[in-house]
Amino acid sequence: MATKVNVVMGGPSAEYEVSLRSGEQVLSYLDKSKYDLRAVVITKNKQFYYADIAADAPVPDIQHFADANGAFIGPFHPSNSKEIWDNCDAAFLALHGEFGEDGTIQGYLDALGIPYTGSGVYASAVAMNKITSKFLYAQSGMPVPDYSVYGVNHPDVTVDGIIKKHGFPCFLKCPQSGSSRLMGRAADKASLESLLKELQEDADDILVETSISGPEFSCGVIDMPNGETKALPPIEIRPNNAEFFDYTAKYTHGATLELVPAPRPEPLLRQIEETALRAHKALGCYGVSRTDMIYCDSKLYVLETNTLPGMTSASLLPQAFKAQGGTYAGLLDILISSALKRAGVA
């Protein structure tokens, strides 16, 4: 009997379009002889729509789901969406950012008793918060770039104090942003003040980091159905023109070289893998994560951990899985199997 999987995508975050691309790819590659598939799209105002995907039919146009010739049923409010989840064996979360990666949808599915891919509420929430996760990285002995927190809850941190501590350039980030959205690089006092004002429209507190230079790496971790937690081959990220791995560099074809396995000495590759495993465990992640880091002055500095990495076939995590001999469809199978195992139904 086929496993019924709801592939969930969209949501109110700045990564809405990225999530739709991930979800569309997941639906396209899941084996329809193994799974009964349902696409669940969450709009930017948190309305739910769904469409069942017939085994002999193509995936509907997710990017324009509202106009997809009536394929989608809805809208449903989250509190009145029982029809969407009836008989669902597992939810495949192709969500990113707010509502999808911060523990909100995880708590919602926990309340419904629906197993889901990726981490639970706690790990999702702390990994999504760049300030909280830094405390946990440092507590576990992992180097992080020097940082300050500016905002309403930290009145002693001033613009002049930031300049004195961090110099220029420095990076500013909203604590719960992803895909390099809601962040920026300040090159002088004027741009620092402008960025702080802009970002505080979205967050009370802003993370400020000292700029460090060196090669940037990303390393995925997956929990296998047999209980093994495994690091994937590290990827080296080389933006062609951007000053850092920003949204354009991440999602514009050809804007970045993504080298996997990273062409670095074996001891450094092992260190990257060990750091990714430590970050995964320090935050309490489950199922899958991907940790970004920079190598500077013989140290690996941890930047952040993504608990729901991008899942298009060209995304970093699937690239790494394929580099070790796996397939994109095989990776999806592992994530679903691990979700079912954690729920005790596999």
Number of helices: 11
For the termini, the CA-CA separation is 13 Å
Let me know the number of strands: 15
CATH architecture of the largest domain: 2-Layer Sandwich
Give the averaged pLDDT, no decimals.
91
Summarize the structure in words:
The protein is α+β, with helices and mostly antiparallel strands and 346 residues long. The protein folds into three domains: 3-116, Rossmann fold (3-Layer(aba) Sandwich); 126-143 and 213-324, ATP-grasp fold, B domain (D-amino Acid Aminotransferase, Chain A, domain 1); 147-210, ATP-grasp fold, A domain (Dna Ligase, domain 1, 2-Layer Sandwich). The chain is 32% helix and 25% strand. The chain contains eleven helices and 15 strands. The chain has helices at 16-29, 82-85, 104-112, 121-128, 130-139, 159-166, 189-199, 247-251, 266-282, 316-323, 328-342; strands spanning 3-10, 35-42, 48-53, 73-76, 90-93, 147-151, 170-173, 183-186, 205-210, 216-223, 229-231, 235-239, 256-259, 288-296, 299-306. The strands form three sheets. Strands 10, 11, 12, 13, 14 and 15 form a six-stranded antiparallel β-sheet that branches. Residues 245-249 have low confidence and may be disordered.
Secondary structure: elements and pairs:
Blueprint: E1 3-10, H1 16-29, E2 35-42, E3 48-53, E4 73-76, H2 82-85, E5 90-93, H3 104-112, H4 121-128, H5 130-139, E6 147-151, H6 159-166, E7 170-173, E8 183-186, H7 189-199, E9 205-210, E10 216-223, E11 229-231, E12 235-239, H8 247-251, E13 256-259, H9 266-282, E14 288-296, E15 299-306, H10 316-323, H11 328-342
Parallel strand pairs: 1-2, 1-5
Antiparallel strand pairs: 2-3, 3-4, 6-9, 7-8, 7-9, 10-11, 10-12, 10-14, 12-13, 14-15
